């Protein structure tokens, strides 16, 4: 495996599909914009989003700057991040309009905003033990209960964007992180009485992060075995592999924003694959593609997208979801994690026919931002992973795929393959979109799908079924 598909020199993304179209058709290139000495080009193509790519020249000194240019791609906005000039000082702003409501109205079970944004993102799981928290009066509170039931579990799961509830259980207050032990809330008890109660730990999707069909054994090379990465998917554009992705629920796939555009009818998702050329492999139609609203092809942040399938998956030993991390969950520098994909095995090479994988260590943001590495380009939305000496990395075609880490025998999605300089070059490790940072956005998009819009009259505000 080599390095990620983007070259930081230009300050804009080159789309994975653009690269393939350009190489195959030997398309004409015309000067577009320069940035830090790197020449960009407009690809004269029929592709609706294939507009910007590198000319192939590597600059002596490259600088990334977000700035206006005539190389612009269309981006589909996801609900939850809106660009409005209206400010709501001391109030909550409804994202779909200029309406301002009291912060006390947020997560109170009453839909005050036209599109109900004030009642989204009100539930989360925190810490290593998946502690259930709810937002109340602008604060996150840990849920305590002695009378928790399956209906409450189902309600919480739906608010997190899941279609089903698997299991809830209790743990003691002292067994969770200290910052979660204060500011408690209960359905039936006062704050004073709550201290004596147990904490609800909500276990979601117990089948996530497991590999029941994979039998670990020593093998030569880095070719992946069936069931080793059951969450890995291949995104196909007009029957050709373009990028990777990860299964996170029955209906949702997570990938990189730079991999896809919003015309869902041209894409299919292939699951359970280890070889690209297998005929009759299970492919699924795409219902909707949601790219982060703040993603911009010239930038580096917010490189994340969700794909909703037309029909839900059927899980087995070779097709299973990977777990998302919880809020506040940290993954330490040096932790060994896995990357996987059908990307090129060398820079500018052909995609691999077989699914390949490699182990790489996580690198701290401080190290990755050093002058001889990425010179301050790594933001809170990014994670670095790989070897500073080079040699092992992700590459073209791996984009959108998982950076997966095992924690207590459970596999969690820590990053989405995003960008890098070259492939496996010294001091240029792969850069991945941070799932912990993107967690609120991911949950919000999935929750919107479950939120049914009730009919409202001018006299009555809609009520949302909430656990509080």
TrEMBL record:
PANTHER family the record matches: ACROSIN-RELATED, TRANSMEMBRANE PROTEASE SERINE 3-LIKE
Domain Peptidase S1: 218-447
Disulfide bond among keywords: yes
Disulfide bridge map: 88-100, 107-122
GO molecular function: serine-type endopeptidase activity
Pfam families: Ldl_recept_a (PF00057), SRCR_2 (PF15494), Trypsin (PF00089)
Protein's name in the database: Transmembrane serine protease 3a
Keywords: Disulfide bond, Glycoprotein, Hydrolase, Protease, Serine protease
CDD domains: LDLa, Tryp_SPc
Domain SRCR as annotated: residue spans: 132-161
Gene3D superfamilies: Low-density Lipoprotein Receptor, SRCR-like domain, Trypsin-like serine proteases
Alphabetical GO biological process terms: proteolysis
SUPFAM superfamilies for the chain: LDL receptor-like module, SRCR-like, Trypsin-like serine proteases
GO cellular component: membrane
Highest taxon listed in the record's lineage: Eukaryota
Ligase as UniProt keyword: no
InterPro entries referenced in this protein's UniProt entry, alphabetically: LDL_receptor-like_sf, LDLR_class-A_CS, LDrepeatLR_classA_rpt, Peptidase_S1_PA, Peptidase_S1_PA_chymotrypsin, Peptidase_S1A, SRCR, SRCR-like_dom_sf
